[in-house]
Write a structure and sequence with these properties.
globular, binds zinc ion, single chain, binds guanosine-5'-monophosphate, alpha+beta
Length: 114
């Protein structure tokens, strides 16, 4: 998957529409187009990295920032008190569909382990 074909890179570059909920220099958050919970947001680094195996390519501050933005989005969308799940689907058995690292932030209903 090259950056020119990657749908999350296209969203990050503004070439594809998304419902953006948080936008800053290195990190973007937008609603999942097929939400599986009342709150279901994807948090991505603008820099293309495929999965956790490439995490060394991301600056440490960006890695930390992904989780800070996940927390900020949860607060903004009102699920901090009730709680929320932050999930990474990494690779085939986890069902990863989009090969640009992203955090799923899901809340607004009870969420169990799969
Ligand atoms: P994963 O790769 O973690 O299994 O899931 C990718 C997620 O991205 C899915 O929940 C899917 O609904 C979401 N998704 C895939 N393509 C798009 C898109 O073009 N726009 C948005 N907003 N979400 C997408
Ligand atoms: Zn990408």
């Amino acid at each position: 998957m090259s950056e020119s074909d990657c749908i999350f890179c296209k969203i990050a570059r503004g070439e594809m529409d998304a419902e953006v909920v948080h936008d800053e220099d290195d990190v973007l958050a937008f609603n999942d187009r097929n939400s599986k919970a009342p709150v279901h947001v994807l948090v991505i680094p603008r820099q293309h990295v495929t999965n956790l195996e490439e995490i060394g390519d991301l600056p440490d501050a960006v890695m930390k920032r992904l989780f800070e933005v996940a927390s900020a989005v949860a607060e903004k969308l009102g699920v901090t008190e009730g709680g929320y799940a932050v999930r990474v689907n990494n690779g085939r058995d986890a069902g990863q569909e989009v090969f640009h690292l992203h955090l799923h932030v899901m809340g607004g209903r009870k969420l169990g382990m799969p």
